[in-house]
Write a structure and sequence with these properties.
mainly alpha
Length: 468
């Protein structure tokens, strides 16, 4: 005898418990640390609401987003919000794909927490966690729309543009997902819904940059970062050497002295960007050099377009092989810019919790390195199952599953291209989204193909009730 379905309130309660349980599992690195994991850039995002300060090198998005939850009381509330958002997004993906259930969701979150870098992205006070949220939100709006409730649609339409705008590298990633919708001929409805987060993010960036910098631009000083990348790779150095001193650029005074490391060029206090030839410090050097950087970048692209493309592809391939935790969990990764903003904007007890954390005693990195050893193996094992799921969704003509699955894979690849080619390979850039591979393998792989025409496929929204 088939048991009767559970009442709607019971299903909602089970879904809520599963989402909360999944969120708790994803917070274990912070619990182990005794405090949210902190990176040197965390101080800049805190300053966006403590000072408040419109920082030249970061969108005024994540700082206010984090403030909505911490309210200058505790950063714990921000990473708890991270965990709840990610758990809910994974829940929605599983339900829309026809795979999810409360037990499966908790088991999936347990696997992701134990075997991938996801919980470390959740536990760090940085916008890294919003990159996968941006991709998931865009994919669900595009291909999962019919299976979402009105409240879920409204939530994704609000959250996803913020997630996209939180980091400039997200813009090309989401554009790649939009191109995917066009290439799959998913229809105008899918393409237009997938475009909403990108359009909303651009609008947010334009408005905040007009208010904060007086410039109607998506990235008023983005040319500085491109110059740093091209200088580190070599082409920009050759441009400066070839065209100086005739062009009269400030950097002409540093021909032959520019570093081959982008981070050193951008942030080292003794670099050409932050000091004059006589050693005088330059306040906000990256902002001041932006007009000149734009000229040098354009000249470099004109002189060596093929070289720039090949170097970008090389950085992309390097980024795709780097997915670790080593550049975020050490005490030196925190730097000295966080503690002043914590002292200025948070209670003394919060400062004490920060100082007592394992990371501040330089004891967290050993744990991170130990668990990170398994991450590459998990990705290798997951890859064939994700590809098999792709092939079976294509054979079954399951447009929804195919679109969602490919959106995850395109988002993961696009992140490697955007981060590696535009900024430079760093382990945390790919670690924040590499967990999409095992996620796709688990949610979309089926032991046997199920041929269900998309037009007649059952709507998960009618058989599963969301907490929204």
């Amino acid at each position: 005898m088939v048991a009767p379905p559970k009442p709607v309130p019971a299903r909602r309660a089970a879904a809520l418990v599963a989402i909360l349980g999944g969120a708790l599992l994803l917070l274990w690195p912070a619990v182990l640390n005794g405090y949210p994991v902190i990176f040197s850039d965390t101080g800049a995002f805190i300053s966006q609401t403590v000072v408040p300060l419109m920082i030249w090198d970061k969108p005024w998005i994540y700082g206010p987003f984090a403030w909505l939850f911490h309210q200058h009381v505790s950063l714990w509330f921000t990473i708890i919000a991270h965990a709840l958002i990610v758990s809910h997004m994974v829940w929605l993906l599983g339900r829309v794909a026809g795979w999810g259930s409360p037990r499966r969701h908790v088991a999936l979150c347990l696997g992701l927490a134990a075997l991938t870098a996801l919980p470390w992205s959740v536990s760090i006070v940085m916008p890294d966690v919003l990159t996968p949220v941006a991709v998931l939100g865009t994919a669900l709006l595009g291909w999962g729309w019919p299976a979402l409730s009105r409240a879920e649609r409204a939530w994704l339409l609000l959250l996803t543009p913020i997630a996209v705008a939180s980091h400039l590298s997200n813009l090309p990633v989401i554009f790649a997902v939009l191109v995917l919708a066009v290439l799959l001929r998913a229809g105008w409805g899918v393409a237009l819904r997938a475009a909403v987060p990108l359009v909303g993010a651009i609008a947010l960036l334009l408005v905040t940059n007009v208010v904060g910098h007086g410039r109607l631009s998506i990235s008023p000083y983005g040319s500085t970062f491109l110059l740093a990348r091209l200088t580190a790779d070599g082409p920009a150095q050759r441009t400066i050497a070839a065209l100086c001193p005739e062009r009269g650029w400030y950097l002409c005074a540093f021909v032959g002295q520019l570093p081959d490391d982008a981070d050193e060029f951008l942030w080292n206090r003794t670099s050409a960007m932050n000091r004059r030839p006589d050693g005088t410090p330059i306040f906000l050097g990256g902002r001041e050099i932006a007009p000149e950087a734009r000229e040098i970048v354009m000249e470099t692209l004109r002189r060596e377009p093929g070289t720039v493309v090949m170097l970008g592809l090389g950085n992309f391939l390097t980024q795709m092989t780097r997915s670790g935790l080593g550049d975020t969990t050490r005490q030196r990764d925190v730097g000295y810019g966080v503690i002043p903003h914590l002292r200025n904007g948070f209670p003394a007890a919060e400062v004490a919790r920060f100082q007592a954390a394992l990371q501040q005693r330089d004891e967290l990195n050993a744990w991170a390195l130990a668990v990170a050893r398994i991450f590459p193996l998990v990705l290798i094992l997951a890859a064939p199952f994700a590809l098999l799921a792709w092939a079976r969704a294509h054979a079954a003509r399951d447009a929804r599953a195919l679109g969602l699955l490919l959106a995850l894979l395109v988002g993961m690849t696009g992140n490697g291209l955007a981060a590696g080619a535009l900024s430079g390979p760093h382990p945390r850039y790919q670690a924040r989204i590499a967990w999409f591979l095992p996620l796709a393998a688990v949610v979309f792989w089926r032991p046997r193909p199920e041929v269900i025409p998309a037009a007649t496929a059952p709507d998960p929204a009618r058989s599963h009730t969301s907490p929204g």
